[in-house]
Design goal:
alpha+beta; 15 helices; 14 strands; 18% strand; globular
Length: 364
């Protein structure tokens, strides 16, 4: 199996050094006397547990018991805000869990579940996609998915789906120390259970990270009998590597869903001075461009400044340069993509397209 190195920022593998005491100053670990150095075994077990947590991102109940903890002390650590009981028998660091996105939480939980199950399983479907670091939307992010590498069988236990399927060595890659199905298969498996919109989000993220259309097509052919493959094919056909965020991918889906012209993603707008800006979406035949969530991107586009006023002025100047090239512009946010507002957002873009074509395509 090929080993794929992940980024150091994966939520399950980061340093974690909390204060190991409750708000009252009392330790949450069991009292076990002292060792020969005079250091309490209680303190030693506490340090070992949090060292293990920092190394692997989770602690199983059986591991905590082996370090001298007991159920009561684990409950105390949860109440003290040091640990979160992510699932029965599985604990993670509370600060990291609170800061993690839903997809990152699924990745953490999936890695811990695989350790609990032992050899003979690999992460698959949305769990594999999460560990690969792909964007996820429109699919269940609380259930772990595994596939057996031995005798195929399918069953569901609390929070874990065991999938039927035959995996070859070529289907498996080790990512950040755990075996998962390769990214193309993970994308297609996830797509079979996701919405079309969710598929556009995940597949666009995979394409953006270098996955090829041919690799996805090959995975589709191998999984041609999977339930949901028809919807998966549709979502995959709409995906675009030019979508640099889940919001942009959802915006692309909105255009398809409401029969707007398909835009060109990440279009460079130039004027006599050079590059005026790179816009998220462009409808060149309509002389119009679109920007998703521009307020969020102000900081990204002016990373040299922490002053919001300076950042806003810089973004306004950028927008003025783009408009001066003879292009109209529409902006929208996360809120505008919600199902209750998507139709109105699409109509607003449609009217803006027609207005820009009427204004900017007329000879002076």
């Amino acid at each position: 199996m090929e080993v794929s190195r992940g980024s150091a920022g994966f939520p399950g593998f980061c340093c974690f050094h909390p204060q190991h005491r409750t708000s009252s100053g009392r330790s949450t670990a069991p009292r076990r006397g002292t060792n020969g150095s005079g250091r309490s075994r209680q303190s030693h077990g506490m340090d070992d547990l949090f060292d293990l947590l920092g190394h692997q991102g989770y602690v199983l109940r059986r591991e905590a018991l082996a370090l001298g903890w007991h159920d009561r002390s684990l409950r105390q650590a949860v109440r003290a805000g040091q640990l979160v009981r992510a699932r029965h028998g599985t604990y993670v660091g509370a600060p990291r869990w609170r800061a993690a996105s839903p997809a990152d939480r699924l990745a953490m939980l999936s890695v811990a579940t695989l350790a609990r199950l032992g050899p003979g399983y690999v992460l698959s479907h949305a769990s594999a996609a999460a560990v690969h670091g792909l964007d996820l939307f429109g699919t269940d992010l609380t259930t772990v998915h595994v596939t057996s590498t031995g005798q195929p069988h399918g069953r569901v236990e609390a929070g874990v789906v065991h999938h039927e399927g035959v995996l070859d060595e070529a289907d498996i890659v080790v990512v950040r120390g755990v075996p998962v199905v390769r990214a193309p298969r993970a994308v297609v498996e996830t797509a079979c259970a996701a919405t079309v919109e969710g598929t556009v989000v995940t597949a666009s993220a995979a394409l953006r990270r270098g996955l090829t259309d041919d690799a996805l097509l090959s995975a589709v052919e191998r999984l041609a009998r999977h339930k949901g493959i028809r919807g998966a094919r549709l979502g995959l056909s709409l995906a675009d590597a030019g979508c640099h965020s889940a919001g942009e991918a959802r915006s692309l889906y909105l255009c398809w869903r409401h029969r707007l012209p398909r835009p060109q993603c990440q279009h460079e707008v130039r004027d006599s001075r050079g590059l005026a800006g790179i816009v998220d979406m462009a409808w060149l035949d309509w002389h119009h461009v679109g920007e998703f969530d521009g307020l969020v991107k102000y900081g990204r586009r002016a990373p040299w400044s922490s002053d919001p006023v300076t950042t806003l002025v810089a973004e306004k100047s950028r927008e003025d340069r783009i408009r001066e090239t003879g292009l109209g512009m529409t902006r929208w946010t996360w809120h505008d993509l919600e199902p209750t507002r998507a139709g109105a957002t699409a109509e607003r873009i449609r009217l803006a397209l027609e207005r820009s074509r009427a204004w900017y395509s007329t000879p002076a």
